[in-house]
Design a protein that fits this description.
The complex is a heterodimer. Chain A is of the alpha/beta class. Chain A is 19% helix and 33% strand. The chains are: A alpha/beta, B mainly alpha.
Chain lengths: 124, 189
């Protein structure tokens, strides 16, 4: 499962690590953050999060049964998440993204991304 | 209507299975107060819960083999996935506690009743199967949810078993919700 944003992730990662030079990294105003969404009792907690592009969202399944996170249009999709398994998504664009659990479609959540993308900030 | 009646028959049958043992001794809560010995011990509860889960998995496999109804197929896949996860968790707990679940009259009646239902399912095709499967799943989950909440949880002793039953029942309540939707759609077929 290779998505275009994966390649960008690697690029962003390299930029963050200063592979392309210290000056470039110095221009980054805020470090990317990790946001955790717990899947518990058949709900995403919190159901809505706001992130900046370049941040990572981590879903962790605390239920007994598997869940399967997917963006409504299918562009992001986790693996089958069994109990205590996590799945990470590096957000590489702005917008409001509704997602559901494919196995239990009544479970829904939203990721809202706004602000400058780490990628564009780092571009020389 | 015929299907509906059949599902009530199943519920009545299963009701006898689940609660029959207690008719003579009173309800579980009374039991706790009047007698030292509850209707089921932990090892029996574990056995019944596992047996019920395994039965729903068997219904689901048959549904995958016989039905073409997308909602039935999706529901059956969910049952296999979720009940397998929970039964595996139960097996892990059994191993951790080094215990052996105890076969008992209720487990045996569940298996027997389940086999009758499987036999009946195997004769049905198309909408008749979908209706019957949906009604049975609704009846089954209603009963399981109620039995865990009202009979097993009040008398279970081991904290690990109680936690497993509580967690599992959250899942079964979600399944009941899905089954309600599937059943009301199947009734329109
Ligand atoms: Cu789910």
């Amino acid at each position: 499962m290779t998505y275009p944003h994966i390649h960008k992730l690697v690029l962003v990662g390299l930029l963050m690590m200063g592979v392309f030079g210290g000056e470039v990294v110095a221009q980054t105003t805020s470090l990317p953050q990790r946001h955790v969404v717990k899947i518990q009792d058949f709900a995403f907690q919190p159901p809505q999060i706001t992130v900046a592009p370049g941040d990572t969202v981590v879903w962790v399944n605390k239920d007994f049964v598997p869940h399967f996170v997917s963006l409504a249009n299918g562009r992001w999709q986790s693996d089958v998440l069994e109990e205590d398994k996590t799945w990470e998504l590096l957000v590489d664009e702005t917008g409001s993204f509704h997602y559901v659990c494919i196995f239990h479609p009544e479970m829904a959540g939203e990721v809202t991304a706004h602000g400058h993308s780490a990628l564009s900030l780092n571009q020389p | 209507m015929k299907n509906l009646l059949k599902s009530f028959t199943y519920v009545a049958l299963a009701g006898t299975i689940f609660f029959g043992g207690m008719v003579t001794t009173g309800c579980a809560a009374d039991n706790m107060m009047k007698q030292d010995k509850p209707a089921f011990n932990d090892l029996e509860i574990a056995h019944i819960a596992y047996t019920a889960g395994a039965l729903d998995i068997r219904y689901a496999h048959l549904a995958l083999a016989l039905s073409k109804n997308p909602e039935v197929l999706k529901f059956a896949q969910l049952m296999i996935r979720d009940h397998t996860a929970i039964n595996n968790k139960a097996l892990a707990l059994v191993k951790k506690l080094n215990i052996t679940p105890q076969d008992n009259a209720m487990s045996q009646q569940l298996v027997k009743g389940g086999e009758d239902i499987l036999k009946e399912f195997s004769q049905l095709r198309g909408n008749a199967f979908a209706k019957r499967y949906a009604a049975n799943e609704l009846g089954y989950h209603k009963l399981v949810v109620k039995t865990i909440d009202e009979t097993f949880l009040p008398i279970a002793q081991n904290e690990n078993l109680k936690a497993l039953l509580r967690g599992a029942n959250k899942t079964f309540k979600v399944h009941q919700g899905h089954a309600e939707t599937m059943n009301s759609n199947a009734e329109k077929l």
